[in-house]
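Practice problem: predict the structure.
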Amino acid sequence: MSYIDDDGKIWLQGSTRPEYGIRIGERYFVTGKKDSENSKCFIHEKYLLVDLHDPVKQYRIFHRIPLDLIPKSPGTLFNGFKNTMHADIMAATYKDVGVDKFVLDGGDYLLARDNLIDPTELTQLADWK
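Answer:
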């Protein structure tokens, strides 16, 4: 598992609408991306790092999802996945216990760059161990 294999929308059981997700190997992750946000996902060490950025509302949300997090949310691949057959799946989500969240907004947002933050810098800024 070293890169993101595919992405698209996943309809989680009990949800009112599909959510953005990615596939890494045989595992699925729901990232929390809203339609108005720019999103970048990458793997750093044993985590999926998700950078959600809304330049109009001036905030950035970062999620750090352990790659070995046990998926507990049943869902169905909805659309957008180009390299993955339609299937019922289990996904780990940004709301699960064990996922870290860090927000930059207000004055802190103005200090952030629009480009990708270095993973080591992000880990230090968020005080993630």
